[in-house]
Amino acid sequence: MNNVKMLVRSAILVFAVSMLGACAPEVGSEEWCTSLKEKPKGDWSGNEAVDFAKHCVFK
């Protein structure tokens, strides 16, 4: 019974941490623009480049 409780608690903790880590800033927000500026341009997707130009360069 203790093993089941420990397993359930561990699963809940892993789920909670993964949900918090999955939060990304909204596209076009100041935080998003800053995080994309720090990301190497070679790692940008085509959509990220278009969104960056639209929201961060040509406001």
Q: Can you describe this structure?
A:
- This protein has 59 residues and is mainly alpha-helical.
- It has a domain at 25-59.
- It is built from 3 helices and no strands.
- The radius of gyration is 18 Å and the shape is rod-shaped.
- The mean pLDDT is 86.
Spell the H/E element sequence: HHH
Number of strands: 0
Tally of contiguous helical segments: 3
What integer is the average pLDDT?
Answer: 86
Calculate Rg over CA atoms: 18 Å
Task: Supply the helix-strand structural class.
Answer: mainly alpha
**Biggest beta-sheet profile:** none
Poorly predicted regions: none
Summarize the topology.
Layout: H1 2-21, H2 30-38, H3 46-57
